[in-house]
Structure formats: structure tokens, C-alpha cells
């Protein structure tokens, strides 16, 4: 049988260039990261981050070639943004048991998965009180967070 392979995703850099946040917006997002971000200049996919204003605060950032993670700390919750510039290619006869949707409950929170410019992204929230906190039960919070994301870095290199 053919193995499942992980390959670099084709990124639409022209579309990403058109969508890049203006310099002032990008600087407001990137300025708090300059001293602590690890690997930002090495990331070879469009880097989406949440805007400077919002309940999430500045993230901790770690990037490596085709992946990155930005970790935020809104009150009584944790919010992670994960980007990947690779995709899995499976043999035609492989049957998937689960088709992922945009919003999915994960027990102590929720995931919101999407693609943009050919790269894959997931927003993951976990809440201190996951059954009571609407951010973890209602898709609205993660949907709005996904809409608010700004393209602030990343290059084909």
C-alpha cells in the first residue's frame, strides 16, 4: 500500500501579498513580539496573527520553516493559533473516518480550522469553565477571531 506523505503546500504568495496588513497594523501586532518571538523570520507561510486590540493580549510566538504557533491568554482561557504550510497526501483508497469542519468541540474548548492562501490554520480555545464559557461552546468567538486575523509576516524564502 502507498504511504501517507506530508508535502509542502502550494502557497498563493500573490494573494497573500495583496492581503498583507498595512504597515501600521502589522507594526502594532509585531512590536510586542520583537524581543520574544522565536523563528518569525524563518516561517515560510503567511503568518496570520490577531490584531493588537482585543481581549487576547500579545502572543508568545514560535515559528519553524513551515509551521508556527502563537499562544494568547485571554481572561479565564487559552487561545492558540497554529499555522502549517504542509498537507497530507493520502492514497486514493484510504477512507477517512472523520471529515473536519470549521468549528469542532474538543471537550475543554473548541477548534476552528480553515485554509487561507493554501496554508492550513487552526484557532484552538480552551476555557477554565468550558461548559459555561460561550467562547468554548458557541462558534461566534472563534469565527470573529478568524475574521480579525491580519497577515503580518511570512515569505517564500
Account of the 3D structure:
The model has no long low-confidence stretch (mean pLDDT 90). It is built from four helices and ten strands; from the N terminus they run E-H-H-E-E-E-E-E-E-E-E-H-H-E. The strands form three sheets. Strands 3-4-5-9-8-7 form a six-stranded antiparallel β-sheet. It has a two-stranded antiparallel sheet with strand order 1-6. By secondary structure, the protein is an alpha+beta fold. The radius of gyration is 16 Å and the shape is globular.
Layout of helices and strands, plus pairs?
Blueprint: E1 5-8, H1 13-19, H2 23-30, E2 47-49, E3 60-64, E4 67-72, E5 77-84, E6 86-89, E7 103-105, E8 109-116, E9 119-127, H3 134-137, H4 140-148, E10 150-153
Antiparallel strand pairs: 1-6, 2-10, 3-4, 4-5, 5-9, 7-8, 8-9
Quick summary:
With 157 residues, the chain is an alpha+beta fold. Helix content is 18%, strand content 34%.
Principal-axes geometry comes out as globular
What proportion strand?
A: 25-35%
**How would you characterize the largest beta sheet?**
6 strands, antiparallel
Q: Bin the helical content.
A: 10-25%
The multimeric state of the shown protein is single chain
Amino acid at each position: 500500500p502507498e504511504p501517507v506523505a506530508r508535502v509542502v503546500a502550494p502557497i498563493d504568495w500573490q494573494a497573500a501579498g495583496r492581503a498583507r496588513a498595512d504597515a501600521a497594523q502589522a507594526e502594532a501586532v509585531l512590536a510586542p513580539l520583537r524581543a520574544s518571538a522565536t523563528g518569525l523570520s524563518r516561517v515560510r507561510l503567511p503568518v496570520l496573527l490577531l490584531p493588537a486590540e482585543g481581549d487576547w493580549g500579545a502572543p508568545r510566538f514560535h515559528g519553524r520553516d513551515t509551521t508556527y504557533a502563537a499562544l494568547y491568554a485571554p481572561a479565564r482561557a487559552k487561545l492558540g493559533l497554529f499555522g502549517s504550510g504542509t498537507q497530507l497526501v493520502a492514497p486514493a483508497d484510504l477512507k477517512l473516518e472523520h471529515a473536519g469542519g470549521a468549528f469542532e468541540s474538543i471537550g475543554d474548548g473548541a477548534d476552528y480550522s480553515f485554509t487561507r492562501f493554501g496554508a492550513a490554520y487552526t484557532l484552538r480555545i480552551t476555557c477554565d469553565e468550558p461548559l459555561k464559557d460561550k467562547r468554548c461552546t458557541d462558534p461566534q468567538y472563534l469565527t470573529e477571531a478568524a475574521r480579525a486575523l491580519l497577515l503580518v509576516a511570512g515569505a517564500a524564502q
